[in-house]
Design goal:
- The longest helix is centred in the last third of the chain and has 10 residues.
- Helix content is 24%, strand content 35%.
- With 139 residues, the chain is an alpha+beta fold.
- It is globular.
- The chain has one domain: ph1033 like domains (ph1033 like fold), CATH 3.10.590.10.
- It binds a DNA duplex (12 and 12 nucleotides) through loops.
Length: 139
DNA sequence: GCCAACGTTGGC
DNA sequence: GCCAACGTTGGC
């Protein structure tokens, strides 16, 4: 199964806000970038991703899971925009900051580092397990 | 708050 | 189809 990373500004939508939604989860609305949308189109049920705080925080803070496949974004004014639904799986025992990620040779090619503007991005298995280890997260 | 990087728009 | 102008994102 593929792994992903979702960015959010914590003052707009934080990880605790997603946790508060519980099993009902939340639509990942507002994505207005084709690359990001195309990544969401590839997602399968049950696939997991990191929840990343951009701008404020700049750290991976949680793990989420896709539980509804791509569908029209209810907040979009044109049909081109679609989204998946996510629910919280777990908060990371320790947040992993962008600074820490940049110090790791294994992670130097992460999309997060190389293309900082893409808001929904793939994460390799290697990157995933490395960050989980840094976070003290052992599923 | 600034600005680099990237994406989109629209005139030609 | 090119590219200049503009808008947005996000790290610093």
């Amino acid at each position: 199964m593929a792994k992903w990373l979702f960015k959010s500004e914590p003052d707009v939508f934080s990880f605790p806000m997603l946790q508060a939604k519980g099993k009902a989860g939340e639509e990942w609305t507002g994505i207005r970038n084709y690359q990001a949308r195309n990544n969401m189109r590839k997602m399968q049920l049950g696939e997991q991703g990191f929840f990343y705080y951009s701008n404020i925080g700049k750290a991976v803070v949680g793990v989420v899971e896709v539980f509804k496949l791509i569908h029209p974004d209810s907040t979009a004014d044109v049909p081109a925009w679609e989204c998946v639904d996510l629910r919280a799986v777990a908060e990371l025992p320790k947040a992993v900051t962008l600074d820490e990620i940049k110090l790791e040779a294994v992670l130097k090619n992460m999309v997060l580092v190389v293309n900082s503007r893409l808001s929904v991005q793939p994460v390799t298995d290697k990157e995933w397990s490395h960050i989980c280890r840094m976070a003290g997260y052992l599923p």
